[in-house]
Structure formats: structure tokens, C-alpha cells
Amino acid sequence: MTVPPQTRREAREAREASAAASAAPSSASSDAALGAVDTGSVAVRKGANALFGRGLLYVVVWSMQLVVSSLISPVLAHLMPPAEFGVLASAIALYQALVVLAVAGIDQASVLQRAEDGNDRRARGLLAVGMVTASIVTVVALTTIPVWADAAGFIGNHPLLLVAVLWTGPAAIVQISLALLVAQDRIKVFAVTSLLSSIGGSIIGLGLLTLVHADATTYAWGGVVAQGVAMVIGIAATRPRLAGLFDGATNARAFKLGIPIALGNLSYFVLNAGDRVVVQRLLGPEEVARYQIAYVVGSAVILLLSFTNQAWAPHFAALRDAVARRQLAMHSRDELYRMLAPVLLAVTLVSPVALPILAPASYRVEELTVVVFVVAITAFPVVASGATGRLLLVERRGVAVGVIAAIAGAVNIGANLALVPLFGIAGAAIATVVAYVVLAAMQLFVLPDRREWRGPGLRIVLPVLAALTVAAASLFVPQDVFWNWFRIIGVLGCLPWFLRRLRAARGGAS
Q1: Of 422, 483, 94, nearest in space to 282 by CA
Q2: What separation in angstroms does the CA of 272 have from each of 1, 305, 390, 429?
Q3: CB of 130 within 8 A of CB of 169?
Q4: Which of 2, 127, 144, 385 is 20 to 30 A removed from 500 (C-alpha atoms)?
Q5: Distance CA 413, CA 271 (A)
Q6: Which helix (H) or strand (E) holds 11?
């Protein structure tokens, strides 16, 4: 049957209108449209439930290392002489940097490979590659200790460095295994492996400290033992595929993505630790200690967000539709903003109560609340950069991510040099915010199809601004017992607010 030209034209126009409606963002004028995404879509609803539901279970498990480190530091400070505690902190920082090199971004590459393939075959091959890479980095670091140990400031502490480097290989393999376990959604074995690697090392180390000898080297052996056992469990659970060692094409793609990520992660060390170097040089070690105490309280939220990025990476990698992935990224960003409002307010309110417990009066803790507040504000650009960073990694834009992180690290150092002489340690906190804002802005700039990227609406911005205003006003309230009770009441009031936002986020609702 012949279709009349007018009918064919109308049919074609109808198809084009339908396609445009499905591709374009909603233009509804309701309040819900002020949110960042079409939260009524099935993809966003399912994704939100996964991220803020089961996905947060992985965040909770990962965050246990933050809880343990916060609890263990005061204990170690009492059990060890100050010099031993200081050198242990330096050795742990070195170990963390070596782990970044040993992982070489293979954890992220394996997650993406599994999502692209729809099975574990080549991802398990990358796990074998990661094991070899971690072993090579560990052996090189071990054999060259006499060359770099004294230059790094570990004069006379080579035994501690030996243990710290031995700690590196198993920890790197555990990290790659955990990434694959998250992608496979195996929460039980993930929890066992993760908790053993984080909590187990501290428990074993404390036992060695009290029963053997109270020094840094003895404590560090606890980490080696725990990571070694966790590594065995991780390997048994993920079953590395040795044939993957000879898959040249897959390995080349993995390192092309992973090496820039590793270099970018090293830049994050500069971004997060460079301020202390500048404060040490310009203001002295006492101000570094004061800044560190305030930074620990204010940056707790930032660390939790980094765990969130790790736990959520497989969900975004598995979502192959680019439009749905972008919508979910914007929705998750906006919901994290909403959840940050009560969290930041609670952190600011509780800081005058917590700081005197964490540090002696000589630290002048009453002056540190403003530093806690400014550091906590960093969580907002961290959320923004996390949303775009996840998309860039899924699209294998590892070079861009690494270069941007390096630039942000350089900005952090420059801002510290400019602001610390003017504002003291508060200037270091401001520099951290500036560096993360630059990081978020640059990642957005290199994001493909950024014209489709929408910022948060007024329904998100206004409650956040209100929380920031109340938090800032609390800085001017006296820090005495009477007002601290009001602060505690305020902190308790933030809990139902946070839980309500969490329930809404899981349902994909505004």
C-alpha cells in the first residue's frame, strides 16, 4: 500500500520529535526539574538505589580503616616515645605512596575491563599482572633502600623501612583484589578481606607493641602479617588468571589508563599533604601539629567521599549507556550535596567539643574550629570532582585525570605560599579549598558533552547555603559548657535530617 506524502512526513516528524524528547533533558517547570536529573527515569532510580543502598555497605566497610586510624593514633602516642611515633607516621606515609606505585592503576583498569567484557576473564588476568607489578615495585624498593633511605630522612631507621616496604606488596595486591570483589558484588568476602587488612594490622601491631617491644618497627610488623593473610584470602577469592600475563593488548590498555591514574594519585598526596610542608617551613612544627589536629576532624568527610568513589566505580563502569551514566552522576552528586549539608553542620558544631579531647590545651584548640570549618567545606568541590572524575575514568581519560591532579597539587603549594603568611594555618585550609575547586573546574572543562551537564538547582543550593550560614555563625558563639550543650543538641538534630536525605537518595526522589 502506498503511504501519502503528507502521512509519511507526519510520521517522520513524529519519530524525530520522539527521538528528541528521549535525548533531551526534561524542560518541565515543576520544582523537581530544578534538580539535576530526571529522577523519574528507571535508570536513575535503579542506580540511586544501588549507590545509596548496597553501595554504601562497601563504603561503611572501607571507612573502618578511618575509624581505626582515628582511634589508634592516641593509643600509639601514649605507648611509644614521641620520636618513634613520628618516624612511624613518616614510614606509613612512604608506604602509602609506594602502594600507589605498586597498584599502578590496575585496580581501576580491571573494574573497567570487567564492565566492558561482561565477565571476569580478562579482569582476572589483570589481577595477575597487578601481582607481578606489585612484586617488582616492592623488590626494587627493597634493594635500593641504602640509596634513598638517608636522603628521605630515615637515618638509622633502615629496619623500619624494610618492614614498611615489605608491607607494600601485599597491600597493593589486596587493593586490586578488593576492587574486583566490589565489581563482583561479593560483600562478605570483601568485608573479611578489607577488615583484616585494616583492623587486623592495628590489633596485631598493638599486641606486638605490648608483648615484644614498644617501637615503630615492631608495630609495623603487625601490618605486614595482616596484609599477608588478607592477600592470601583475596587471591583465593578472585583467582588471578595467569594467562593474562601474556595478553599484550589488554595489558597495554590497562597500563595506558593505570599509569596516569597512579601519577595522579601521587599528586593527590601533594594536594593533601603539601600544606603541612609549607606550614612546617613558614610557621614551624608546633603549627603543623595544630593544623594536623584540625585537619583530621575537618577532613573525615573528605576521606569518606574517597571511599564512596571507590565503592561506586563499578556501578558507573557497568552502566554502558552514556546518557544514563551522566544522569546518574549528576543525581548522585546532588544527593551527596544534600547529605553534606547536615554532615558539615554537625562537624562544625561538634568540633569545639571534640578538639579538647583530641589535643591538650597547649594546642589552643579554641582557635582551631574555624580551620575545621574551612577544611570541611572542601567536601563540596570533592563531590563535584568525584562526579566528573568517575565519568572520565569510565571513558578511559586517565591522562587527563592525572594531569589535572598534578596541576591541582601545584596550585595547592602556590596558594599555601601565598595565604599561610597572611592567615596562618587558616590560610592552609583555604588553599586546600582553592586547589579542589580548581580540580573540579578543570575536570568539568575536559568532560565530553559538558553542555549536557547541569549544575545543582535551587532546591539543593538553598539548604546547603543555610547549613553553611548556621555553621559559620556557630564559630562566633562562646566555647563554654553552656553553649557546648546546645552544640550537642544541634548535632543530634542533624541525624534525622541526614537519615531523611539518605532514604530519599535511595529511592531516587527529590
Answers
A1: 422
A2: 71, 14, 20, 10
A3: no
A4: 385
A5: 8
A6: helix 5-23
The counts of H helices and E strands in the chain are: 21, 0
Q: Which of 287, 310, 301, 296 is nearest to 89 (CA)?
A: 296
Q: Write down the residue that cell numbers 601521587 correspond to.
A: 266
Rounded Cα gap, residues 433 and 63, in angstroms: 23
Q: What's the rounded Cα separation, in Å, for the pair 307 and 303?
A: 6
- Give the separation between CA 182 and CA 312, rounded to whole angstroms: 9
Can you read off the three cell numbers belonging to residue 235?
587471591
The sign one gets for the Cα dihedral 286, 288, 289, 290 is positive
| Structure-block grid coordinates of residue 353 | 567539643
Q: What is the DSSP letter of 2?
A: P
Residues 6+ apart with CB under 8 A from 141: 98, 165, 168
CA angle 107, 101, 257 (to 5 degrees): 50
Residues 246-257 pLDDT 10s: 999 999 989 988
Q: Which residues of 477-509 are buried (b: 16+ CB within 10 A; e: fewer)?
A: eebeeeebeebeebbeebeebbeebbebbbebe
Neighbours of 330 (CB within 10 A): 25
Q: 169, 132 in Cβ contact below 8 A?
A: no
CA angle at 444 for the pair 438 and 446, rounded to the nearest 5°? 105
In the numeric block, which cell numbers belong to residue 73?
A: 593514633
Say what the pTM is.
Answer: 0.72
- Contact (Cβ atoms closer than 8 angstroms) between residue 155 and residue 131: no
Q: How far apart (Å, rounded) are the C-alpha atoms in residues 172 and 136?
A: 12
Per-residue model confidence as pLDDT tens digits over 54-91: 666 777 776 777 667 666 766 776 677 766 666 776 77
